[in-house]
């Protein structure tokens, strides 16, 4: 009976959903993630900044995948991790506004997916996720360099809401599903994650 329950979990729609998310990034390089301002021709301002902050993590497949895949790492006390990672990401975005254009930042974002996969299979400790999400936060600030302070504040607010929603989805949807996977299938998912990160890194080095 236990094996049947496990099989039902692994054949549920959740794996198909996650599989789709894993395949989407293969169709686009990280650099193709358009800023919402450009995509919908929004004007700089409070509303434009807020909507842009909401949409930016969703339009970047590397950011979207990283945040959702945090549910794969089996975080204990997910609420504490949730608030901690959000604080680190937002703080890194603020740092990116003060000291932009860090060389190799996009490459580090791609490699963060590789690191995440290694965490999933237990090769690296979970603490590496802290600098990893900091890199993501830093890169997300680049879209609003030179904006007025008010528009930047609303962008950061939208960014906070968007990332919090994705992290909640990771904890409430992806995490329970991953807990029901066999070790073999979890390693397969981790391998796909590492492969995507490696692909992104390659496209960053060789445009």
- Distance, first to last CA: 51 Å
Strand and helix order = HHHHHHHHHH
Total domain units: 1
Oligomeric state: single chain
Unreliable sequence segments:
4-14, 24-34
Number of strands: 0
- Assign an overall shape: globular
Computed structural class: mainly alpha
Q: Fraction of residues in helices?
A: over 70%
Strand content: under 5%
Describe the structure.
The chain is an all-alpha fold and 207 residues long. The protein has one domain (36-64, 75-205). It is built from 10 helices and no strands. It has helices spanning 2-10, 13-23, 36-39, 46-59, 61-69, 78-98, 105-120, 129-140, 149-179, 183-205. Helix 5 (61-69) crosses helix 9, helix 6 packs across helix 8 and helix 7 runs antiparallel to helix 8 (129-140).
């Amino acid at each position: 009976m236990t094996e049947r329950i496990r099989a039902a979990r692994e054949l549920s729609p959740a794996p198909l959903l996650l599989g789709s998310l894993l395949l989407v990034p293969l169709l686009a390089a990280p650099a193709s993630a358009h800023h919402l301002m450009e995509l919908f021709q929004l004007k700089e301002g409070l509303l434009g900044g807020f909507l842009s902050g909401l949409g930016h993590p969703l339009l970047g497949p590397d950011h979207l995948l990283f945040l959702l895949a945090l549910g794969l790492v089996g975080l204990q006390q997910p609420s504490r991790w949730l608030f901690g990672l959000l604080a680190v990401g937002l703080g890194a975005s603020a740092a990116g506004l003060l000291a932009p254009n860090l060389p190799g930042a996009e490459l580090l974002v791609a490699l963060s997916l590789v690191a995440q996969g290694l965490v999933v299979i237990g090769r690296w400790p979970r603490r590496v996720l802290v600098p990893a999400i900091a890199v993501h936060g830093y890169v997300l600030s680049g879209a609003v360099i030179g904006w007025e302070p008010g528009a930047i504040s609303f962008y950061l607010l939208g960014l906070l809401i968007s990332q919090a929603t994705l992290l909640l989805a990771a904890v409430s949807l992806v995490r329970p599903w991953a807990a029901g996977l066999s070790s073999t299938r979890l390693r397969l998912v981790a391998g796909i994650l590492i492969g995507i990160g490696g692909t992104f890194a390659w496209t960053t080095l060789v445009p």
